Amino acid sequence: MSILQISGVNKSFGGLRALSNVNLSVEEGSVHAVIGPNGAGKSTLLNCLVGRLIPDTGSVTFDGKSLVGLQPHQINQAGVGRVFQTPEIFGELSLIDNVLIPTLARRDGTFKANTIPRVDQQKEVNERALQMLEDVGLTSKRDMIANNLSRGDKRRLELAMCLVQRPKLLLLDEPTAGMSRADTNNTIDLLQRIVVGHVTMIIIEHDMHVVFSLAQRITVMAQGTPIVEGEPDSIKGDPRVQEAYLGGAHL
Ligand SMILES: Nc1ncnc2c1ncn2[C@@H]1O[C@H](COP(=O)(O)OP(=O)(O)OP(=O)(O)O)[C@@H](O)[C@H]1O
């Protein structure tokens, strides 16, 4: 059963057509990668899903509900979580407070900063936030100020902030960009452990090692439109994909 249906989506910036008649369906519980060369429209598509951009035409239906025209926070409340390339964390706060904030936001539907101390005393919320830090391997740093974390740990923290809200769909934009091979492999392990099989995920990624380690289905975009879709093995050998990547050097 599909949880996300994108139909006939177009998006232009002035005279530049960034998305052209995009149709994409994502199966509930799957990991779906969207790949393609630079400028293919991947980030534009993701931005249309999270409400940062509004498609010029077309529909985006998530869990039976239209997302087009909703504000980013409304889309988040509908169950779509996202981790983008630049971690969006509260840099001056401790890790545990960073995770408590979205826990609270999800629970009450609103967030008020002055409720943090009160919530801190609530066992259930606290335990959930602590468990989340444990899941991403940051328990020992729970009282550190988030700004002092390494780049990789900031991404782990943002993933925790996202997952603690129990999204039905998780969007990841290049989760391993700029990471060493060791950090990349750690991230793959982490995602396999706490996301794959638990949450439907769309991942945009240039690193094919990451894509083929995680994805069950892959859509290849080029010049704003999906050109091929299929299971990883069929994508690897598809000549249209090789061509889109100028000889297939990335694959
Ligand atoms: N806000 C914007 N204003 C004008 N043009 C834009 C804007 N955002 C994206 N574009 C253009 O739209 C096209 C698609 O860009 P997009 O960032 O979606 O591609 P991408 O596949 O994510 O590329 P990359 O892998 O390099 O991140 C590109 O030609 C880009 O220059």
From TrEMBL:
Source taxon at top rank: Bacteria
Record-annotated ABC transporter domain positions: 4-248
Pfam families per record: ABC_tran, BCA_ABC_TP_C
A GO molecular function held by the record: ATP hydrolysis activity
Entry keyword Methyltransferase: no
CC per GO annotation: plasma membrane
Signal peptide: none
UniProt-listed CDD domains: ABC_Mj1267_LivG_branched
Record-linked InterPro entries: AAA+_ATPase, ABC_AA/LPS_Transport, ABC_transporter-like_ATP-bd, BCA_ABC_TP_C, P-loop_NTPase
Keywords carried by this UniProt record: ATP-binding, Cell membrane, Membrane, Nucleotide-binding, Transport
Protein name: Branched-chain amino acid transport system ATP-binding protein
Provenance organism: Rhodocyclus tenuis (Rhodospirillum tenue)
